[in-house]
Design brief:
Layout: E1 2-7, E2 12-18, H1 25-29, E3 36-42, H2 46-60, E4 63-69, H3 78-90, E5 98-103, H4 105-117, E6 124-128, H5 131-137, E7 142-147, E8 150-157, E9 162-166, H6 175-192, H7 194-208, H8 212-232, H9 247-257, H10 264-281, H11 287-299, H12 311-318, E10 331-336, E11 339-343, H13 348-355
Parallel strand pairs: 2-9, 3-4, 3-5, 5-6, 6-9
Antiparallel strand pairs: 1-2, 7-8, 10-11
Length: 360
């Protein structure tokens, strides 16, 4: 088992990573359980893991209740968030009731936002069950919901008390969902660790086969990188924005195509290639660098070309991006593979040239 520490200005918390961790759940999480627990999951994950967690909570002697939500990115909205508030109110949850998020990124984001806002802040624990949530969304305290005009535009920075990553939960993950998570794994290497990128290229088959030691190393490395970045910049005023590599384009794809039609990781994969193309336009990357990344993403069955969209649609969605500052769009680009930077020196002409072959 790996144990990492995330040290933010608000507080410190552990990330537990390993296989067969459920056996140690009571021991590891006991310091973070309060007397009453709200266990939040969805209709897909609950049949797989809810009973196991109920046994853990029964053994702990804590009072608990469940809130089961519909599954899917399209439900990451106010209406579904209100189902959480309804459940908390109906079960007389208090400010010290611990909210446990059992599921992927959608559950983690919504349960975390509910925790941040219910009685102005309740403790919560992340139990991510998808690769994407294990390596990215469960760590760092970003919580929120989508708006029809933009992804994750409504939310809060609110850190969990602990993150509990049992790699065995990935055994029930559909192949498409596992591939989507690989987009975020590859993103970390591309934005800040060329040696990790080389390691991924050498171990990509073993990783997709979920060989335990290889998988644990990849998840640990991503969590370590995010923990370091979040410690330096908890609320995305600087370096943390680098984690959005590929996301400005990717969020535009998700919003235009309808949330859930393209999985988040799929949109990020295509968006990362567009960020590479833009980096070429700005004179940073060489085409060979982009092709190298295309080969790696293709090996894990991720899309490397975006859907056809009008230039107006691209620009409209990207203008709602959270990195927009003083009305100027800012983009994460690559000076070289393994070194990302943020720029606001991107012109409409640069974007038109980058998107030219993908404009309907």
């Amino acid at each position: 088992m790996y144990t990492l520490n995330v040290a933010t200005t608000s507080h410190q918390y552990p990330i537990f990573i390993g296989s067969n961790l459920l056996e140690s759940a009571n021991h590891l999480l006991a310091p973070y359980f309060t007397n009453k627990i709200a266990l939040i999951s969805n209709e897909t994950v609950a049949p797989l893991y809810l009973q196991q967690w109920e046994k853990i909570l029964n053994h702990s002697g804590r009072e608990y209740f469940n809130i089961i939500l519909p599954d899917g990115e399209k439900y990451k909205n106010w209406q579904t968030l209100n189902l959480i508030y309804d459940g908390l109110m109906q079960n007389r949850a208090e400010r010290k009731t611990t909210i446990m998020a059992l599921g992927g990124g959608v559950i983690g984001d919504m349960a975390g936002f509910a925790a941040a806002t219910y009685q102005r802040g309740a403790p919560f624990i992340q139990i991510p069950t998808t690769l994407l949530s294990q390596v990215d969304s469960s760590v760092g305290g970003k919580t929120g919901i989508n708006h029809p005009m933009g992804k994750n535009m409504i939310g809060a920075f609110y850190q969990p008390q602990a993150v509990f990553i049992d790699l065995n939960s990935l055994h029930t993950l559909p192949p498409r969902e596992f591939s989507a998570g690989m987009a975020e794994v590859i993103k970390y290497a591309v934005l800040g660790d060329i040696k990790f990128l080389e390691w991924l290229e050498s171990n990509i088959v073993a990783l997709t086969n979920q060989e335990p030691e290889v998988l644990a190393h990849a998840v640990h490395r991503c969590c370590q990188m995010k923990a370091d970045i979040v410690a330096a910049d908890e609320k995305e005023s600087g370096v943390r924005a680098l984690l959005n590599l590929g996301h400005t384009f990717g969020h535009a794809i998700e919003a235009e195509m309808g949330y859930g039609n393209w999985l988040h990781g799929e949109a990020v994969a295509a968006g990362t290639i567009l960020a590479c193309r833009l980096s070429e336009q700005l004179g940073y990357l060489h085409q060979d660098d982009t092709q190298r990344l295309i080969r790696l993403l293709s090996q894990v069955n991720l899309p490397v070309t975006p859907p056809k969209m009008s230039l107006e649609a691209w620009l409209m969605h990207m203008s709602h991006d959270k990195k927009v500052m003083d009305g100027n769009m800012r983009f994460v680009v690559l000076k070289q593979l393994g070194e990302a930077t943020i720029t606001d020196k991107v012109t409409t002409q640069n974007l038109a040239a980058t998107l030219n072959q993908y404009i309907s």
